């Protein structure tokens, strides 16, 4: 699925290695300035960037909340 990082989401402004993504999900790519990039643990996600995520059905709602800015 493709998700867009909102400015107040949990994933913005932190290196990916510091984020505990839900079990059953993996971040596959970031679309930054129109260019697809494969992220590393040191990659940061900026507000408004699109991210390609692979997720099992039971992880979809959780991963969507990471990008939406909604607080748990």
Outline the structure in words:
The protein has 72 residues and is of the alpha+beta class. It has a single domain, classed as Regulator of K+ conductance, C-terminal domain (Alpha-Beta Plaits, 2-Layer Sandwich). The protein is 12% helix and 28% strand. It is built from one helix and four strands, in the order ββββα. A hairpin with a 2-residue loop joins strand 2 (25-32) and strand 3. The model has no long low-confidence stretch (mean pLDDT 91).
Mean pLDDT: 91
Q: Which topology does CATH recognise?
A: Alpha-Beta Plaits
Q: Low-confidence parts, pLDDT < 50 over ≥5 residues?
A: none
Radius of gyration: 11 Å
Tally of alpha and pi helices = 1
According to DSSP, the number of beta strands is 4
Q: Give the total of domains.
A: 1
If classified by CATH, what would the architecture be? 2-Layer Sandwich
Order of helices and strands: EEEEH
Q: Tell me the overall shape.
A: globular
The CATH superfamily label reads Regulator of K+ conductance, C-terminal domain
Find the structural class using helix and strand composition.
Answer: alpha+beta
Helix percent reads 10-25%
Bin the strand percentage.
Answer: 25-35%
The largest beta-sheet arranges its strands as 1-4-2-3
Identify the CATH class. Answer: Alpha Beta
**Largest sheet geometry:** 4 strands, antiparallel
Query: Terminal Cα separation, in Å?
Result: 21 Å
């Amino acid at each position: 699925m493709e998700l867009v990082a909102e400015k107040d989401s949990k994933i913005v402004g932190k290196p990916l290695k510091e984020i505990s993504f839900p079990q059953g999900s993996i971040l596959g790519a970031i679309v930054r300035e129109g260019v697809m990039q494969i992220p590393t643990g040191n990659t940061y996600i900026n507000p408004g960037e699109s991210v390609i995520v692979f997720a099992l059905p039971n992880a979809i709602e959780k991963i969507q909340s990471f990008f939406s800015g909604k607080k748990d």
